[in-house]
Design brief:
14 helices, 497 residues, globular, disordered N terminus, single chain, seven-stranded mixed beta sheet, nine-stranded antiparallel beta sheet
Length: 497
């Protein structure tokens, strides 16, 4: 009891809920909270960056004062947070629909559908006339018709991206047709804000109508297609040639597949494993696919592990892959925890809300917060440096290619660092997201509770020795063009080298 009281007494007024509830007051609170609790604040707001930081902050202060749309408020706050170049800093929209899981049965619930569509913006559009107008445009840019599957569960929409400036956005994505009854023709499904000639920030309204703001901008490729998240494909006008970076093995060819992990043999020499996420909720699914196909993995000379757009999760989720790629001892760098009252409460909040946390983990966090209470405003070791070794090395696969791209972050990057130092592994693709130096994210609610901030509480031991990757990413050994067939390129590399 005394330890918890200690933490509460140390809370500054800036960390207590404000009386006002608007975007401006949320932003004032956020600036103070980050300065007090984010372990990367002082290293990143230093003598050489302070003037630029204040100018950057002033810009968003002015924009935020004028905004009255909560979704646009969230966008501007996210843009301000990007100054820290830390993809671990996230905002969660606590809109009442965010955790609403819709099923096919709900499509018969007319009352629910009416409620979901209340206040949704609509733009009248004639599909035929829009397609005709594309033929007359000299510079179509991002405008066109796109097929969008917003999840692995294949909720498909056909969307027209049209020029439509409302003072915030530059383009709108308007529904042309929807396989689900939760969305109707003419409704605005996307909002795009142009940030360069060929790059766009994107806000997407999900199946349950909650907002999703993409971390990375979408870019127009040389072939005219869109380098977007998986499950996006431009239909009209069609790409000039080639395939986008999201190319994957045909689902019909996959021999063992669940919602998160899929395995197949590409040929007699090469096996292929795709993993969408290392989230702790998928640990058992990953383990089951690897275990079910281990005999096949061991009997193939080569293997491709496809981690594109795998944003991370839990280190436990990739444990089953380590024996496959291990070929020599690998140094694993530990982390230091920044001990502040705000971070103590954030850890306790995460512990309370995480349904997947084991009893052993809860015991560990209880002992950790006890140490934090005893050493306020200091760095304490949460995980020491270690060297990973094994008594055995799998003879096959002899060589492994790991496919990676800018969508790989956090825990996935931890796996990539391990894989990079394994002699049998070659990293191929493009730089990862660069989201690992500051980690172990924890939640805190904004004064206006429609937003929750998730932020890092630890810093890596790699930083003092100049091996940080934030804002840079992990480089692949072999770079691949966005419009290349990455799986084919990996297959050819393995068999020719």
């Amino acid at each position: 009891m005394k330890k918890i009281l200690f933490a509460l007494l140390f809370l500054s007024a800036a960390e207590l809920p404000a009386q006002q509830c608007n975007c401006d007051s949320n932003f004032v609170w956020l600036k103070r909270y980050m300065e007090r609790n984010y372990p990367g604040y002082k290293p990143k707001v230093n003598d050489s960056t302070r003037a630029a930081f204040y100018s950057y902050t002033q810009k968003y202060e002015e924009l935020i004062k004028k905004v009255d749309n909560p979704n646009y408020c969230e966008y501007y706050i996210l843009k301000w947070l990007q100054f820290f170049k830390d993809g671990h800093i996230q905002l969660i929209d606590n809109n009442k629909n965010r955790n609403l899981t819709l099923t096919s049965k709900d499509e018969k619930n007319k009352k629910l559908i009416r409620k979901l569509n209340e206040g949704v913006e609509t733009i009248p559009i004639d599909s035929i006339e829009f397609v005709k107008s594309l033929d007359t445009m000299k510079h179509k840019g991002i405008q066109g018709v796109y097929a969008i599957n917003t999840s692995i569960n294949n909720s498909e929409y056909y969307v027209a991206i049209v020029k439509n400036n409302n003072g915030f956005r530059d383009y709108a994505g308007v529904i042309l047709s929807s396989k689900t009854k939760f969305w109707h023709k003419g409704e605005v499904k996307l909002e795009l804000r142009q940030i360069s000639d060929s790059a766009f920030d994107v806000m997407l309204y999900q199946q349950n109508h909650s907002i999703w703001i993409y971390d990375q901008p979408f870019k127009i490729l040389k072939n005219g297609d869109l380098d977007a998240a998986p499950y996006w494909k431009r239909i009209i006008p069609p790409p000039v040639s080639g395939s986008p970076v999201t190319t994957t093995t045909d689902e019909n060819e996959i021999t063992h597949c669940n919602a998160n992990a899929c395995f197949t043999n590409l040929n007699t020499q090469t096996s292929y494993l795709r993993i969408h996420s290392f989230s702790d909720m998928f640990t058992n699914e990953i383990d089951s696919v690897v275990k079910a196909n281990m005999n096949s993995i061991k009997s193939h000379k080569y293997m491709i592990i496809d981690l594109r757009y795998n944003g991370g999760g839990s280190d436990d989720s990739y444990t089953a892959l380590l024996p496959i790629i291990y070929s020599n001892p690998v140094v694993s760098y530990g982390v230091d925890l920044y001990s502040t009252p705000g971070n103590i409460l954030a850890i306790k909040k995460a512990e309370k809300e995480d349904a997947y946390l084991s009893a052993e983990d809860r015991k560990f966090f209880d002992s950790l917060t006890a140490v934090m209470n005893a050493h306020p405003y200091q760095y304490i070791i949460q995980a020491p440096d270690d060297t990973v070794t094994s008594d055995s090395i799998m003879p096959e696969p002899e060589k492994v290619v790991v496919l990676m791209n800018r969508g790989c972050g956090s825990t996935t990057e931890q796996f990539l660092l391990f894989a990079h130092d394994c002699k049998k592994v070659t990293l191929m693709g493009e730089h990862s997201a660069g989201v690992l130096d500051y980690s172990n994210i924890r939640p805190v609610d904004f004064p206006c509770p429609y937003l929750t901030l998730w932020y890092p509480t630890t810093r890596s031991h790699r930083i003092p020795i100049g091996k940080g990757i934030d804002g840079i990413g992990i480089a692949p050994k072999i770079k691949l063009a966005p419009d290349a067939d990455w799986i084919k390129a990996a297959e050819e590399y393995l068999e020719k080298n």
